[in-house]
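Worked example 2:
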Amino acid sequence: MDGKSHLIRVGATVFLLVLAAGCSKSKTSPSSLCDNEGAYLIAFASDRATAGHYDIYLFDVLSSGFRLLKDLNSATATDSSPALSRDGQLIAFVRDPGTAGGTDICIYERLTCSLLSTPGLSTAGNETEPVFTGDTRRLAFVRDTLGHRRIRLINGGSLTFVPLPGLQEPAPYDDWAPAPDSTGNLIAFVSDREGSPHLYLYNRTDQTLDDLPDLRAGDARDLDPTLTPNGLFLCFASDRAGGQGGFDIYLAHLDASPPTATTLPNLNTPGDERHPRIGHAAAYIAYQSQSADPTGWNVHYYARNAGAVISSAALSSDSSDVQPSVRLP
């Protein structure tokens, strides 16, 4: 890391980033050649350009086309797990150069086509699964620590790690798939601390852990949580009995008493539905669905009011389109 910091201001979003050798480019493109447009966006990873080599794509829902991500993707490294900021101007993602250094989290700033990284994210271990808090002032992610995965949270302004007592202790289990609310005071995540992977809800203010017993279904695997910024809606994938088959998408209102996991009309299929990402007002949900035909994994989005799956022709491919993230209402 060269020690030179850059203050990035995009609309109301302020996120202090430091240029890092692992993710930065030696030359920044002129902003006039960059594309930071689009009100409703879905970012995802795909190997549609080269089989087995994943890049980041940005789909514009209103125009049903793709936005330019100049200078983001690498010809030699695999890029995956994109996470959009609330205003759609920042994309955090995982870069895997295929070397002994492991995977790192990078951040792409659309206004200037700059590829940046927060400090402390390039280590000898693996950093994965980035996701911004709803206010974009913090970034949650996963780091492998002494052979086990742990949730981490970093401040954008002070460049410091936020203590997460109860999620940092050395123990023989894994925590992964963080899903923070607007400020990171609530973080839903997956853990196998009881054997099968289940959902948990961590309260940073009270330093308490809720194992969400009302949302469980035996030893079913519950994965891929996503929270609305207000912390009211939790969406996730589960292979519990009673669904359409494989993994299905479920939605829960956490303020309900008790909260219950319900399916969404017309969304699930006999194949697998995974990695849901819910819009900030819970009106739309993007997800990946595995078809029985040769198209494999494809990204779709679901309109809750209409109870309808929207499958744009531009999102259909014979390649694997996975890990969507959204800027959707």
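Residues 1-14, 16-21 have pLDDT under 50 and may be disordered. The domain at 5-24+33-327 is CATH 2.120.10.30 (Neuraminidase).
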